[in-house]
Design a protein that fits this description.
The chain is α/β, with parallel strands linked by helices and about 350 residues long. The protein has 12 helices and 11 strands. It has a 6-stranded parallel beta sheet with strand order 7-6-8-9-10-11. A 3-stranded parallel beta sheet has the order 3-4-5, with helices on both faces.
């Protein structure tokens, strides 16, 4: 593990912030700062690239020997090897997301940079959203709502039947923090759970499928809970969707590119799968227009993690991680290799 350059004294004062506070680099302010910026600014001096007239490389060069920590999110610039080389004093990356596809973890390990994420903060809220999307698709809640609002109930009569959730075979792709919470909720509905992960989880009794296509073939609904990596990109392709079948439902609360979106749209358009509940998309915020007219598709604007309760918990764990680092104490939610 390569040693990082020792930190130097911070540069000049930053407007409205004490120079005595620890410096934290921010390439693009995460949403949590929009809500709780004052709570952070009492404890840290933020160096925001978006408020500097300098190009990003020059901005980073200005702070290259002083900044020890970065605060980022999944919606900001990717923290790649090029960025890391420009800040040789960096020792910690704290991300406000649970996913880590925006951070070059291999390079961080090589350079000895610590990484902390949101930990369990979002797990329950995202699991709730996954179950909500599944129920909505199966019971046609959003489509029936539109039917009533358009006055069609009185004009055309009863709406077509939906399908019950109880007794469904649910395949979970990624049985981590979120996937486990999804399984717990769906067990309460009387569903049977199977899963696919990088490796078998010895602490659960659910059937394990090493092959996601086989999992789909033995499921009524497939819920995507895994992270986005080179291995999982486009993992849910046409072959998997056809294995899921004409009555099968796909739910994605992971990352958009885990599903081959073009192939999913084609399968939905011709009825090769039964429906989809999607909180994430491959090219956000752009969504395939073909999905807009499909009543068997329920969509949300990547909002599964966004509740007041989760944001307050996120504020706390982000502050506590940074405080722990600057106090030479263990991080609260370090990213460990599984």
């Amino acid at each position: 593990m390569a040693a990082r350059s020792p930190p130097q004294a911070p540069h000049g004062p930053h407007e409205n912030q004490s120079t005595d506070l620890p410096e934290v680099l921010v390439l693009k302010p995460p949403p949590v700062l929009n809500y709780f910026g004052d709570d952070f600014s009492k404890k840290f001096r933020f160096l925001k690239a978006t408020e500097s007239p300098l190009p990003i490389d020059q901005f980073l060069a200005t702070h290259a020997r002083s900044v020890r920590a970065v605060l980022c999110s999944g919606t900001g610039p990717r923290i790649n090897a090029e960025i890391l080389r420009l800040v040789p004093s960096l020792e910690l990356i704290v991300t406000t997301s649970a996913g880590l596809n925006h951070i070059d973890l291999a390079e961080c390990r090589k350079l000895g940079i610590l990484v902390a994420n949101a930990g369990d903060v979002f797990s329950e809220d995202v699991a709730d959203m996954a179950v909500g999307l599944l129920i909505d698709v199966l019971r046609k809640v959003s489509a029936a709502d539109r039917y009533v609002r358009q006055g069609l109930w009185a004009a055309k009569g009863d709406y077509p039947l939906g399908s019950k959730l109880g007794g469904k075979r649910i395949g979970i792709v990624g049985l981590g923090r979120i996937g486990s919470q999804v399984a717990k909720r769906l067990e309460a509905f009387g569903c049977s759970i199977s899963y696919n992960s990088r490796k078998r989880k010895e602490f659960v009794s659910y059937p394990f499928y090493a092959n996601v296509c086989e999992l789909a073939a033995n499921s009524d609904a497939l819920i995507i809970c895994c992270g986005l990596t080179e291995q999982t990109r486009h993992m849910i392709n046409r072959e998997v969707l056809l294995a899921l079948g004409k009555e099968g439902v796909i739910v994605n609360i992971g990352r958009g590119p885990i599903i081959h979106e073009k192939e999913m749209v084609q399968c939905l358009a011709v009825g090769e799968i039964g429906g989809a509940g999607l909180d994430v998309f491959e090219n956000e915020p752009n969504v395939p227009k073909e999905l807009f007219a499909l009543d068997n598709v329920v969509m949300a604007p990547h909002m599964a993690v966004f509740t007041p309760e989760s944001f307050q918990a996120l504020r706390d764990i982000m502050i506590e991680n940074l405080e722990a680092f600057f106090s030479n104490k263990p991080l609260l939610s370090p990213v460990m290799e599984e």
